[in-house]
Amino acid sequence: MGACASGMGGSPIDAETLQRMAQICSDKLSGLPDAVQWEKYNIIWEMWRKSFSDKPYELELPTKKTVSLDYKKYPENEAEINNAAIQVACSNALKEALGDILHEAMDASVTPKFPANALARKAAQKAYDKSIESTAEKAIDKMTDKIVAHLEKVSKEKGPLRPTENDAQPTENPHALKKAVK
After folding, report:
1. Half-sphere exposure (CA, 13 Å, Cβ side) for 57?
2. pLDDT tens readout for residues 33-75
3. What span, in angstroms and rounded, lies between the C-alpha atoms of 84 and 41?
4. pTM of whole model > 0.90?
5. How would DSSP label each residue in 60-126?
6. All residues at 6 or more sequence positions from 4 whose CB lies less than 8 Å from its CB, including other chains
7. Which DSSP letter does residue 159 get?
8. Is the pLDDT of residue 21 over 70?
9. Residues 100, 36: Cα–Cα separation, whole Å
10. Residue 98: which of 147, 144, 37 has the closest Cα?
11. What confidence tens digit (pLDDT) does each residue in 59-69 have?
């Protein structure tokens, strides 16, 4: 990939830069397996807690879909629990990453406007952090709704996706996020 990037006519992307970029991504995502495990534990705990009322635990996923998870069916429903934990943890990680991006983009222009008084500055920082978190969450929720609506529309128009032997195997996604990075 470094050779390809350097063939772009003086691109500053060399092997060392690519390695650094990969390391940053790896560092940012390194806690994800533990976050998924923790989310799974929370889901199972909630399922167990709800089992005393003879009702399954209802969990709203980031896609606004609600799943019913019954502790009495555990561990047979572990795949469903894992899926829910992955969705919740990855959604939270995406919100956190988007918040980091917003902070990086906005801090230099916003923080100088904070009051000089330490107590007022702390309150302003807290309100600013809350607005960053809220903005990231709303943006992801809005995009999730758009994606779900788009997939439902395509499914309704074209019917269920049913690959056949004659179909070409998907190669590179022309709509991938990497376009936004260029």
Report:
1. 23
2. 999 999 999 999 999 999 999 899 999 998 888 999 999 999 9
3. 11
4. no
5. E-TTS-EEEE-GGGTTTTHHHHHHHHHHHHHHHHHHHHHHHHHHHHHHHHHGGGS-SSHHHHHHHHH
6. none
7. -
8. yes
9. 20
10. 144
11. 999 888 899 99
